[in-house]
């Protein structure tokens, strides 16, 4: 079992200026990536901060989202790689289907980039290697899978 990898998701904020005032909404989403050799589990929670400046008043609100989870079988992962070098390391997961990662905040169709801390880069590399190995192995749980190629 590999230790969980902490990550952050980049979710763009919203700034709006209208007759009622100026509103700025920012998001912070943090989570953990778990990999047990067969399944990638992403779990995350976030906060939304809303700042509102109107004529004669300033308002600050903070909302927390509940923990959300997504399980993805290793066989549904089309690719995984470590990006960004030393300064801004990111782990990119590419799915075999556009809808697999659809519920993850900040994900593009079929792709999610997890921002990781520099000190976790080596750990992320170990997860990438383990996930690559798991993607290459045949699924022995499937009824039509064979351990050896036919002779």
Question: Any overview of this molecule?
Answer:
With 151 residues, this protein is mainly beta. It has one domain (5-136): PH-domain like. The chain has one helix spanning 121-136; strands spanning 5-9, 14-18, 21-35, 39-54, 57-64, 68-73, 77-83, 90-95, 111-115. The model is unreliable at 140-151 (pLDDT under 50). The strands form 2 sheets. Strands 1, 2, 3, 4, 5 and 6 form a 6-stranded antiparallel beta sheet that branches. Strands 7-8-9 form a 3-stranded antiparallel beta sheet, covered by helices on one side. It starts with a strand and ends in a 15-residue tail after the last helix. The longest helix is centred in the last third of the chain and has 16 residues, at 121-136. Strand 7 (77-83) and strand 8 form a beta hairpin.
β-strand number:
9
What share of residues is helical?
10-25%
Whole-number count of domains: 1
Q: What can be said about the biggest beta sheet?
A: 6 strands, antiparallel
Mean pLDDT: 89
Taken as a percent bin, the fraction of beta residues is over 45%
Level-1 CATH class name: Mainly Beta
Uncertain stretches: 140-151
CATH topology call? PH-domain like
- Please state the CA-atom Rg, rounded to the nearest Å: 20 Å
- Secondary structure class reads mainly beta
Q: Architecture, CATH level 2?
A: Roll
